[in-house]
Design brief:
Glycosyl_amidation-assoc_WbuZ, 27% strand, 254 residues, histidine biosynthesis, eight-stranded parallel barrel, oxo-acid-lyase activity, imidazoleglycerol-phosphate synthase activity, TIM Barrel, alpha/beta
Length: 254
């Protein structure tokens, strides 16, 4: 069984950090290097960085920024955004990323997952799934930053990505993003039950009890969160935080 993890998920835009609500209205929250230094001090085990503009604007991943992050970062991290080919993955790994998350390109070119897994190993390749309910109230996967409905159920798509060679699934609820009202427990459990690889669930964490619910009821292997780790108080002042090692142990072991 994969070790349970609680992972800060940081959104990149123009080399800065932002936070969104339901994938909309990105708000600038600071410099990624400063955030990394604080997370080092907090003894975080892993980070995820997602560039929210790279695919939409057909930009290359920000290799220089990734190198700068890797220089400062004491922990392994995953990068996602704008990845369309194996050479980009090679450059990202050379720049210091341990894993890459592939989202839109996995739909447009499924063989990319298969080829990348064969070259770099499945443990390096994360299949990224953004999902929400469509106009008919049915859960479906969206790509291109939540703009394009590919008309696949998250469970079906997760199984396809696993079969292609993805070593993990990053499952992100668009409707829960930034709302801090709790994870989508039902969908997490459905995906976890359908695949044999670890599932990282994201979207909705607002308090410690949400982690416990998602681990216990959703059976997630790992949980990612953004707002909870960058905002403080009712007015959402920017303050980087992370549970203490003691609190992490209580969350994971309860």
């Amino acid at each position: 069984m994969a070790l349970k993890r609680i992972i800060p998920c940081l959104l990149l835009r123009d080399n800065g950090l932002v936070k969104t609500i339901k994938f909309k209205n990105p708000t600038y929250i600071g410099d990624p290097i400063n955030a990394v230094k604080i997370f080092n001090e907090k003894e975080v085990d892993e980070l995820v960085f997602l560039d929210i503009d790279a695919t939409k604007n057909e930009k290359e991943p920000p290799y220089e920024l990734i190198r700068d992050i890797a220089t400062e970062c004491f922990m392994p991290f995953c990068y996602g955004g704008g990845i369309t080919n194996v050479e980009q993955i090679r450059r990202l790994i050379a720049s210091g990323a341990e894993k890459v998350a592939i989202n839109s390109a996995a739909y447009h070119n499924p063989q990319l997952i298969k080829e990348a897994a064969s070259i770099f190993g499945s443990s390096t390749i994360v299949g990224s799934i953004d999902y929400k309910k469509n106009v008919f109230g049915k859960y479906t996967v969206y790509i291109n930053g939540g703009k394009k409905n590919i008309k696949k159920h998250p469970v079906v798509y997760a199984k396809e990505l696993e079969k292609l060679g993805a070593g993990e699934i990053f499952l992100n609820s668009i409707e829960k993003d930034g709302c801090m009202q709790g994870y989508d427990i039902v969908m997490i459990k459905e995906v976890v039950d359908a695949v044999s690889i670890p599932v990282i669930a994201s979207g909705g964490a607002g308090k410690i009890s949400h982690f416990k619910e998602a681990f216990q009821e959703g059976k997630a292997s790992a949980l990612a969160a953004g707002s909870l780790f960058v905002f403080q108080g009712r007015k959402k002042g920017v303050l980087i935080s992370y549970p203490s090692p003691k609190d992490i142990r209580s969350i994971i072991n309860e």
